[in-house]
Amino acid sequence: MRNRYVDLKTDWGFKHLMGKEPQMRSFLNSLLSEDYGEIKSLTFENVEVLSERADGRGVIFDLLCTTDSGDKIIVEMQNYSHLFFKTRSNYYLYTLMAQTLTRGDQWTKMKEDIPHLIGVFFLGKRFGNERKPIVETEEFDRVDRVPFWDRIRKYFIILENFDITNIEDPSPIDYWIDVIKNLGSNMYKISPSVYEKADPALLELIERASVCNLSDEEYRRYEAGLKALEDHVDFDELLEDAKAEAAAEGRAEGRAEGR
Q: pLDDT, tens digit, for every residue of 135-191?
């Protein structure tokens, strides 16, 4: 019997549930409204950006949308650890910038700058020694510590670092992150305050996330995505166990040689 909920960390589940205008608009407003104003509406764009080179490699985003003010936003779910994900996130945004600029544009005749290009990257695991749940980056003047160029900004939402129980007065973005982190097998960890205070779009997402609402074809696609996620997580855990075991053996050998 289907009595479970879709895990938003799966590729299919994330696109299926977050790829709807009310949910994406609600989420983005909870994250960005203080800096960019309220998003009244948005449209989803083609997620594939082809390379201009014949032999070049294109990019396929998870979700790409344009707001009513013209800003373009990439939203990605990245569960697996990548050593150079910071570089990859920049590649995504600068590839989007290359698409935004029309071929043959003359810099001296431009009347306004390009729209804001924003990357929102959900990370299942932290990178480096980062302990904040949200890392926000922008191009700054290194000496005066003031913004230098504001057209590109990145938000890294690190699910491993987020715990709503540590937040005295949760905000709308905290409710969203709590659901995105725990929806699925960890439903019991979702804060009760989510059901009491979250906006209707988030509550609707939770309701739609019941696998009872999926067609047979949708359910098969979700199960395939879930298996891929679990298999990769299992591999990561085995790799970490192997590294820990090798380190322990190395320390034991070192002590033996010392003696």
A: 999 999 999 999 999 999 999 999 999 999 999 999 999 999 999 999 998 999 999
Q: Cα–Cα distance between 3 and 8 in angstroms, integer?
A: 16
The half-sphere exposure of 209 on its side-chain side, counting CA atoms within 13 A, is: 27
Q: How far apart are CA 117 and CA 239, in angstroms?
A: 36
Residues whose CB is less than 8 angstroms from the CB of residue 43 and which lie 6 or more positions away in sequence, other chains included: 21, 65, 66
- Whole-number Å distance between alpha carbons of 51 and 148: 28
User: What pTM value is reported for the model?
Assistant: 0.85
Q: Taking the mean position of all CA atoms in its chain, how far away is CA 118? A: 12
3-state secondary structure of 251: helix
Question: For residue 186, what are the contacts with CB-CB under 8 A and spacing of at least 6?
Answer: none
